[in-house]
Amino acid sequence: MKQINQYRGSTLHTKGWIQEAALRMLNNNLNPEVAENPDELIVYGGIGKAARNWESYEAIVRELKQLENDETLLIQSGKPVAVFRTHSDAPRVLIANSNLVPAWANWEHFQELEKRGLMMYGQMTAGSWIYIGSQGIVQGTYETFAELARQHFNRTLKGKITLTAGLGGMGGAQPLAVTMNEGVCIAIDVDPIRIKRRIKTRYLDISTDNVNEAIRLAKDAATKGQPLSIGLLGNAAEILPKMLEMGFIPDVLTDQTSAHDPLNGYIPANYTLDEAAELRSKNKKKYIQLSKKSIATHVKAMLEMQKQGAITFDYGNNIRQIAKDEGVENAFDFPGFVPAYIRPQFCEGKGPFRWVALSGDPEDIYKTDDVILNEFSYNESLCNWIRMAREKIAFQGLPSRICWLGYGERTRFGKIINEMVAKGKLKAPIVIGRDHLDSGSVASPNRETEGMKDGSDAVADWPILNALINAVGGASWVSVHHGGGVGMGYSIHAGMVIVADGTKEAEKRLERVLTTDPGMGVVRHADAGYELAIKTAKEKGVHIPMLTT
Ligand code: NAD
């Protein structure tokens, strides 16, 4: 295994805190506690990577260490390609990953380029160096299940059984999010190592390889109203049809296998992991055929369970599209999680805001937790979240925190953090960032922009504008990616990270970027005609030239 320096503390290894932050975050993405397969530079989400290859990784590290405070490093699909003199308020790094001209934007063409060393799949936060492990998604997952519980079950999942699959980097958040909502979760995964990892990091309670036992344990806990999460070893495309035969229908049903990438992210039914790996290397075409066939079986079983009463939704892995392409005509009968549960939050510019303590000291995060509890005490669910996160979420790699904050709140909090750094209340600067899955940074018709009110689902100008305005405002690094979440051809999205280093200049940059970034979410949804976004824009003074209603 390659040794990667996990720098901590307040000593710089670069010429400035922004470069240092980029270096520490790149390395954090590849920390074995954080990344799913660091030996292959794979961070999460199928083959989402932090750098194109080890040679590129070394070159990025070298360049970041030499980079001046008025220079900008350019990254093209995980490879450093240029350094230009810009200015001190400009981003130190600009990143473009996996972007293809639309008519070529498919897995086949990407795989060909990847084989020739010309491209890398950046997923969302993998190639943009702001992945923080499963905790990065856990509040979003928690909020999704909480909203589902509000809509369908008296505000709690108590006594209800959720069935899902996929215990990878993101999917691994599901069992904890369900138990935080007081429910019971059966989470299927074909890989015993993933199950063990989630147990070790307290995302999962127990495991079994026996379907009967999983159902018995789940029913027992549900009857007693006790939260419990059970990892079930096996293949979802085999287990769901078996559960149907047994007459077991869960209350809630979803999936987070990496179905967006049938070659690298989904194991075909009746294949062991070793057999699958062998087939993948020997006969890609056959692998993809079998994988897609299994995805179709999986989705058919989900549709049948839905018919028999399970509240069913797609959890952002494009599984419906693949099944539809395989002939499952009604694959889209169950909704995606964004239109079903999340969109109102996007209308207020709310999304998965996150911050990381570069010192490596958990105390720095606890101090910022206290700020949320004091400064945002009017927001009860936010404060509950912070208290729960503190108690239940184990740090992976650099200590970090996530919470959904909206327009206005992000700027306020960012400036407070910067002041804490300036006053020496924290041991080192803080990195502030977010998932690309946010209110104004994604065009993804099967996910974030599914079923937009005005039919603008596939309009991809928005994430590009998001990246441009954040770069102009002085974000520390900005990225534009293609294919994250749902796979090649199905999404364009932008990331941004900004460092609070305690300087006056950082304060101004934070004020600009943490306003424009969620502001784009408000604008995008107001433009599509969402009342809540229009109201938010009016109340908060977001200037939208042609807003008439
Ligand atoms: P990952 O690649 O780290 O994990 C996928 C998991 O699925 C692995 O543990 C694998 O063993 C398991 N798996 C594959 N085929 C299986 C099968 N047939 N049966 C059972 N288990 C199987 O991916 P991840 O980071 O957890 O992301 C999962 C999916 O969710 C991706 O498609 C990703 O793009 C999407 N995603 C969703 C959100 C969201 O908020 N909903 C956010 C990010 C990513």
Essential attributes:
globular, Rossmann fold, Urocanase fold, 3 domains, binds nicotinamide-adenine-dinucleotide, six-stranded parallel beta sheet, 18 helices, 549 residues, 17 strands, alpha/beta
Sequence-ordered SSE layout with sheet pairings:
Elements: H1 17-29, E1 42-44, E2 48-49, H2 54-66, E3 71-76, E4 79-85, E5 93-97, H3 107-115, H4 135-152, E6 161-165, H5 173-180, E7 184-189, H6 192-200, E8 206-208, H7 211-224, E9 228-233, H8 236-246, E10 252-253, H9 273-282, H10 284-307, E11 311-312, H11 319-325, H12 337-347, E12 351-357, H13 362-375, H14 380-392, E13 400-405, H15 409-422, E14 430-434, E15 442-443, H16 461-473, E16 477-482, E17 492-500, H17 504-527, H18 531-540
Parallel strand pairs: 3-5, 5-16, 6-7, 6-10, 7-9, 8-9, 10-11
Antiparallel strand pairs: 1-2, 3-4, 12-13, 12-14, 14-17, 15-17, 16-17
Helix pairs in contact: 1-2, 4-5, 4-12, 8-10, 9-10, 10-11, 13-14, 15-17, 16-17, 17-18
The protein binds nicotinamide-adenine-dinucleotide.
Nicotinamide-adenine-dinucleotide binds at residues 36, 44-46, 137, 140, 165-171, 188-191, 194, 235-237, 256-260, 265-267, 315-317, 437, 485.
